[in-house]
Design goal:
The chain is mostly helical and 162 residues long. The chain is built from 6 helices and no strands.
Length: 162
């Protein structure tokens, strides 16, 4: 056995490049994902309850707001380092794009063959929904920024800028 065949001593630095792992996020970001996942579950539950149990203009506005809030939270789950206003803006843009898609016949036709798609894409364009999306995105952005500021005061080094 030559010296090249032997495994390096544990104290000897490896010459092989380290493999990056998606699961090796900084601790602060892992701690951020748990409350975000819980928030997503709560928002989804509230949204479905609103859709199936309530009716009227208030229920429609609440459901629209919860839709955008869920999108923002999912965006933050995917990118925990994103600034709150970036996630909120992206959530509004995606919600508005889905609403504008309703100007075409595609969502209604899809709902005929895949009824569940009605919950995600809707079927009828309503301009007022855009206002509800904007308000919800603003609320989520402000709340997330406030939470990050509070966490940064109690545990410096969170690494996410508000």
């Amino acid at each position: 056995m030559t010296s090249h065949d032997r495994a390096p001593h544990p104290s000897t630095p490896s010459t092989e490049p380290r493999r990056a792992s998606a699961t090796l996020l900084p601790r602060a970001h892992r701690r951020r994902r748990t409350p975000l996942a819980l928030a997503a579950a709560a928002i989804l539950t509230a949204g479905l309850a609103t859709h199936y149990l309530l009716s009227g203009v208030f229920a429609d506005a609440l459901a629209d707001g919860l839709y955008t809030a869920l999108i923002a939270v999912v965006i933050l789950l995917i990118g925990p380092r994103l600034r709150p206003w970036v996630a909120a803006s992206a959530a509004f843009a995606l919600s508005a794009a889905v609403e504008l898609l309703q100007l075409t016949a595609l969502p209604a036709a899809l709902a005929e063959t895949v009824p569940f798609s009605r919950l995600i894409l809707g079927t009828t364009f309503a301009p007022l929904d855009l206002v509800f999306y904007a308000v919800a995105a603003l609320i989520v952005g402000v709340l997330d920024a406030a939470i990050l500021r509070a966490r940064r005061r109690t545990s410096p080094g969170l690494g996410v800028r508000a």
